[in-house]
Amino acid sequence: MIGFVFSEEFLQRSVVFALPILFAAFAALISNRAGIVNINIEGSMSVAAVCGTLAGHFSGSWILGLIVAMLVGVGMSMLLAGAALVLRTDSFLSGIALNTLATGLSVYILYAVLGVKGDSSSAPTAAIPNISIPILRDIPVIGKLLFDQSLLFYVAILCTVFLVFLLNRTKLGTEIRAVGHNPAAAESVGINPRVVKTKALILCGVFSGLGGAFLSMSYLMYFSAGMVAGRGFIGIAAEAMGVGNPVLTALFSFLFGAVTYFSVGAQTVLSFPYQILNTLPYIMTLIALIIYAVIQKNKQSKK
Amino acid sequence: MKRKMLAFFASFLNTTATFFRKKETKDVIWETIRTLAMLLFSLLCAVVVIALASRDDPGAVKVFLTAPFEDGYTVSRILTESIPLMFTGSAVCLMSRAGQFNMFVEGGFFVGAFVSAVLAPELCTGTSSFLVPVLCILAGTVAAAALGYIPAKLKSGLGIDEFVSSLMMNYIVLWVVLYLLNNVWGDPEVTNATKYLEDFAKLPFLSRDNELSSGFIMAVAVAVLCALFLFKTKWGYEIRLTGNNREFASYSGIRTDRVVVYSQLIGSGLAGFGGGVYLLGNYYRFTWKTLPNYGFDGFVIAIMARNSPILVPFASLFLAYLRVGAQQMSLYTNVQHEVIYIIQGIIIILFGAKFLMDMSVKKKRGKEMTV
Lengths: 303, 371
Prior knowledge:
heterodimer; A: 14 helices; globular; B: mainly alpha; ABC transporter involved in vitamin B12 uptake, BtuC; 15 helices; 2 strands
């Protein structure tokens, strides 16, 4: 049991489970910073996952699959933009709407293209490659963690750096923060909140697309209905814990990933009912939210 | 005489004209026209989506539209399908009137059904009375409300967003119930199922031939009671005021943290009640392996009903009609019933769109309902 938690494999696999949560969290982060409540990430990820895996299967190229997934993610985000910014439906409701729509759409696409229901295991995709660096991967403890991972792990690290840079060092980042903080004030200094929000949503779509692609092109080689399984929502929780800070968000995503892997991995090690283990990531999210809220409350009462 | 008649006629015209010129009447008429137009439009969307999905099945659209009215049985299927929607729809109405986006309607429905299903065979040993279903459903309601108290209290006490916490609760509840179902309280002879109910634990039928349970009456009654509660009681008034503007409500002396809690408690309880009624009336044993999605459907209903519980039965019947149509369609043709989710998504966006509201109600009237 203890050996299981402290094994190299545990760290490595935790990252695998953390990646979709991380991309979802980044998607939530960028739209939250621009002041849009976006709960549609779950749905975007599942539509992106099905489109990516199908594109990968038919073209035989994972690059094309990945691009399609990202484009579809952006497309879903643009639907949210259309609903929330143009039709002015409450963004929360639009999110629920698009999640519902995504449930139908992903099954519909799967059926329209392959004529099957449920999953596309009959049409395995071209997988996003793993990058394994000789010598370095043999470093004890961190070797496998850092140098024997899916390509998207390195993309995720780049994304973290990119987000920190974008938010703190670029004009768009300043605009996003300004609009998220106070749209009226931002408008008064000549920023168009709608344009900025749309740009943020495009980025959000790219992240959701990456998350979806990871699930159906790297974690598994096919799409199955309901495979996102709340990861989009756990991502939102990770973002809430990370208070809009990309690095903290990434760390919390890793933590959530580790707990998720523990609940899956421990099923083989422990003779414990798997249903109870499956509740762990969600209980952990709840507890984390509570701890965070208590800390915030204490801070406020000290002031 | 003639003059009298004329005068009467004129005054009649006048009252009619003022009636139609009155703002409220105008609004109601506009609202009705707009709602009907949107319903027609969503039906049109449904037809287009299905037509696209069924190029090799030209009859699919016709099946979708007409099959629900084929015979008494399919009509009663519409009524049956609308039962859970009415419960979760009313629950969502209550909570979103208080400004709470609690997703535990989903988990509450699940728990309510499970608790009633587990309790019924236990109570049945030795007793056979009409009290059995009543007690079972009551237990389901209490269980759901008790669990719904967690996100509610977290919101009012610590300010934790009830949306995320209630979603997490849903997943926790799902897995715990599945554990209990397979290891503790399930039927030992069948996997993932509770024991089959005794006859007197089932709710009575309204129509035995068409398998319509009396749960339908309860569902309608709940919607009506919710409307009365919301508009005719002090608590309902507090809920509406808090939802409109929490700060204003607390300045006017309402303890809004309590409103936040009890609106969600009642909402979750209603969901549990619905779960129990639906199970004892239509399923007879608990076999769900996933969350049945009725909670999210509740949001669709609440939006179509503009958060008015009194409109919930109509919205539920419409959605139930679409669903039965879709199920019949997937029975007779190759098109799957999941396409209905695409249409539900479109409905939410359309009905929630403030853009469309501004188009019909020209004058901006203070603060519009946000949901």
